[in-house]
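User: These chains co-purify. Model them together.
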Amino acid sequence: MNAPGGSLLVAEDVRKAYGPTMALDGAEFSIHPGEVVAVMGPSGSGKSTLLHCLAGIVTPDSGSIMYNGRDLATMSDAQRSQLRRSEFGFVFQFGQLVPELTCVENVALPLRLNGTPRKQAERTALDWMQRLEVDDLGRKRPGEVSGGQGQRVAVARSLVTNPRVLFADEPTGALDSLNGERVMELLTEAARTANAAVVLVTHEARVAAYSDREIVVRDGKSRDMERVI
Amino acid sequence: MSIGHTLLGLLESGPRHGYDLKRAFDEKFGHDRPLHYGQVYSTMSRLLKNGLVEVDGIEAGGGPERKRYAITDAGITDVAQWLATPEKPEPYLQSTLYTKIVLALLTNRDAADILDTQRSEHLRSMRILTDRKRKGDLADQLICDHALFHLEADLRWLELAAARLDKLKAAMHA
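Assistant: Joint model of the two components:
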């Protein structure tokens, strides 16, 4: 595949096996800054493995993942961790907030891990919580807020470091339609304003409709639908 | 639904007489509306004229119902193109999609390809609706939601159908 010029994150011919199971079998992917790309496909097709490879969480057996012109395979574990902390953001389906911390502490956490002083980190955190319409929940703990509110807090946390790529794996999977819709609106709006790229793994078409284009993963192979048609 | 393409698809598994085609069509696709013999013969003569089928044999006794039809290479290409072309998303699309999925199975083609292409076409419409909803008032939101949920239902049915067919295929080849 020739990745289109200006791509921020590009995967080429990525293969990954877990024992005898081929999770990815020559998958391809590319995304531009400010673009929202949905990754679709049936359960067990390799969508989440692709996301984990793109984010440098899982190392592929072969193939390359290039982020901003750098090959993730040539980086040390420490460099990849640093990349994940500073350039990437993550939102998952559930279970991502630290229950012992307040909501604002949760949102501020990535900044604190990067060495930002507490007050400054919490100020930035509150700013993001305001954009996600949950700034009134700052002092509450995750156990005291609803699922939809908790997910907005998680989105605020994923964006607090101004990541260039946001990885969202079924971000509305645990929410009702109205809350899911609001989370998608706020998430895509915030990402577009910040010119961040969003890799959105979902099996729901209504969620994928917030993307600019979609790729389909099936049996570990990817299909870029924009280039097919 | 395109009767011509459906009859062509049915011919892919082997030559058939007109009455045999009608029976196969009614059994698989015509539960509510069986084909008239006239429709079969007018369709077949059109397909014949366009070179998509040929007469494979004529039984003694004459008459159109005695003709046995076989699909040509051009006919096979025509079916493949039809299956690969997504349908314009609209309500009550299901019967055409159903026909395409069943034909894909009968002709040993990949139902997943049809699903992916159709999903892409649906998503194109769904993105426009989502955008309109985001910018619109409550009335826009309600009407777009209605359309979005119906389009999503099409896709969910297609996904389930494709998954069932994959399972069936795996069992057939086991």
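The first helix of chain B runs from residue 3 to 11.
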